[in-house]
Amino acid sequence: MVVSSNQLSLSDCGTHVRRPQVTDISVQCGTSSIDLAIEICPVIYTGYNETLLILNHMMDTSCRATLDDTVNPPVARFSFPLNMTHACGSIFRTTSAAGTGIFSDFSNIQTVNISGAVRSSDPTTGTITYNAELKYYYSCAYPLEYLINNTQMDVSASSISMTDNNGSFISTLSLELFSDSSYTKPLRMPEDGIELRTDIYVEVKATNLTGQYHVLLDRCYASISPLPSNSSFFNLFVPCSKDAFTTMIENGESQSARFYFPAFRFIEQQNELMSTYYLHCITRLCELSTCSTFKQCNNRRKRSTRDATATDISEIHTITSPEIVTRAESIQSKEEPLAAGEDDNSSVGLGIAVGILAFVCFIALCMAAVFYKKLRN
C-alpha cells in the first residue's frame, strides 16, 4: 500500500524516490529553537507521509510536521522551542566536566544535551504490515560557559550534521557599557578618553534565550590586548573574590548581570597620552535551580596564575571589543622655574636694595650724632 502526502505523491518525487538513509535528517541547533528537516520522498516511498511522522510520541498540533516543497528535495519540518515545558517531549540532560583552555580555572563546566526521536506511525490495520518502521534520532549539545567581550558576538550559522549537532547560545549574549546607574545611556568614548575614576556600568545580557537559564558572571577582567594573550590584565572579579572598587549589582538572578567599576589606567602605559584596554567576561548560563550552587566557593577550582593563551581564545567565538580609553592625566605645579638670566637680575636687584638701605641708616646715624651734640651744648 502506497500512502501519498497531502501535497506530494510518489510520482511528484521524481529522481528523489528511494529507500530511507541515515542522512535523511538534518538538525539545526538554534539559540531559541531546534529545527529538524527530514527528506519526505523516502518517507512516501516507505508508505508514510508527513502526517504519520510523530515527534517523541507527541500528538499536539504544535509538534507535528509541516511539508516544505519549496526546497529540492522536499522535506518535512519540525520546530520546537528550547524550553523544558514546551520542547515536544525532548529529553534535557545537563552534564558537568572540568574546564579546559580559557575555562581551565573552573572545575564545573556544564553542557545541556537535548535529544529525542521522530518515529513513523503505521496506518496499516490487521495482523501484518509491509511498511518498515522509520526512526530519526536527533541531539543538540549546548555549552553553558562563554567568553564575551564589549559587543554582541558574531557567530556563524551552525553546521548541519546527520542526526546531532552542537549548538551555541553565544549569539544571545551581549556585553554593553553604560554611563549611568539606570543603564539607559550607552557609554560614548571621547576621542581623548574618559577621565580617571569615571564610573563605568557594565551589563551582560541574554536576549531570545529560553527562560530556564540565568546569566552568571564567573570572571571579568581587563587586558591591554583585545585578546588576552600574554598581555597585562587586571581582574575586576574572579570566583569568590573581587577588586575593592568593583561593585556587583546583580549576578545569577535573571537573564542579565550588572556591575560597575571606576575607570583606571595601566601603569605600563604611563608615558602615553591615553591608557587603552579591553573588557572580557567569562559567562555561565545556569539553570534556575543551580545558579545558587555555582556562587558557592567550594564548587570553584583554585585559580591558576597562568595567563590565557591565544590558542585558548581561538576556541571561543568572539569578536574584538571596542576600546576603553582613559586619559593618562598627571598633576603638575602651576609655578614655572625662573630662567638663568632672570635669576641673575634678581640677585643684582637685591644687592642694590641692600646698599640703599645701608646708606639711609648711615645718614640717620650721622644726623642723630649732630642732634645729640647740640643738646649737650
Describe this structure in words.
The chain is built from four helices and 19 strands. The protein is 14% helix and 32% strand. It is an alpha+beta fold and 377 residues long. Mean pLDDT is 77; it is low at 150-164, 299-320 and 333-344. The N and C termini lie far apart (162 Å). It is rod-shaped, with a radius of gyration of 38 Å. The strands form four sheets. Strands 9, 13, 14, 15, 18 and 19 form a six-stranded antiparallel β-sheet that branches. Strands 3, 6, 7, 8 and 10 form a five-stranded mixed β-sheet that branches. The longest helix has 37 residues, at 340-376. The protein has helices at residues 40-46, 291-294, 310-314, 340-376; strands spanning 25-29, 33-39, 53-55, 66-68, 75-81, 91-97, 109-120, 135-143, 145-148, 164-166, 173-178, 199-206, 213-223, 233-238, 241-242, 247-250, 256-262, 274-287, 324-327.
Approximate strand percentage = 25-35%
H-E order: EEHEEEEEEEEEEEEEEEEHHEH
Question: What portion of residues is helical?
Answer: 10-25%
Low-confidence stretches: 150-164, 299-320, 333-344
CA-CA gap between termini: 162 Å
Radius of gyration: 38 Å
- The total of helices stands at 4
What structural class results from the helix and strand content? alpha+beta
The count of β-strands is: 19
Roughly what is the average pLDDT, rounded to an integer?
Answer: 77
Bulk shape: rod-shaped
Largest sheet: 6 strands, antiparallel
